[in-house]
């Protein structure tokens, strides 16, 4: 018996990077997947890849910051698979800049995707989870929640997600639903590639610099985060609630 046989996992921003790795691990462990992303081309490519691997996948282009799109997707996913057991709020963007150069649009975009998006998705799934008396909600925070130069918007959103996680844990615990957060450190994805580009260095240089500050002496891979997410999502983790797990190759917080 696979660990997530019979479970349905909804992962946002799952076409690439950390979200894709999370989706893939759930599917390998037997879960059915519901995935959304904003970029149609990349999402279709990932969907085809997953189908070729024999995964059971329901997908749609949807923007987490848009309540109607999220609710329509969740309702269709429940029609398709009968329920949603696991929600992973992974979709994310960065709009980095020093405070004095940060535009309103940079601030709003980051708040909308991370905070409003996670709120929209959690609110949409909770009624199905409450009915089933079972659920696992995992939010993607970040070590940036502890503060990071050039990320006033992103670190605020990622710290906000920790408060959101703890509140969901308190409100939903009695319905068999847990909420936890994974806070990654430096992970090699398009997001960190974009950071290298913005600061004008090669990705290899950025990786080398980051690794020099990571106690385990290597950078993180999307699978490292997926492993932590799966731990929180396990049925046996029912007494682990409202926690933030830093997955950064060394101590944080
Ligand atoms: P990524 O490679 O950029 O993937 C994020 C995915 O989310 C992309 O496919 C993106 O689409 C999608 N997305 C963006 N806005 C969306 C929206 N409104 N609705 C639905 N999907 C949307 O990033 P990642 O590195 O895998 O990051 C995944 C999560 O981990 C994020 O929450 C991020 O903040 C967090 N995290 C990452 C790191 C790291 O070092 N990589 C560290 C700490 C935390 P587009 O590409 O079209 O925008």
From TrEMBL:
Question: In Gene Ontology terms, what is one molecular function of this protein?
Answer: 3-oxoacyl-[acyl-carrier-protein] reductase (NADPH) activity
Q: Spell out the Pfam families in the cross-references.
A: adh_short_C2
Q: Which family does it belong to?
A: Belongs to the short-chain dehydrogenases/reductases (SDR) family.
What sequence ranges are listed for the domain Ketoreductase? 7-185
Task: List membrane-spanning regions.
Answer: none
Q: Per the UniProt record, which EC number(s) apply here?
A: 1.1.1.100
Protein name in UniProt? 3-oxoacyl-[acyl-carrier protein] reductase
On the tree of life, the source organism's domain of life is Bacteria
The entry's keywords = Oxidoreductase
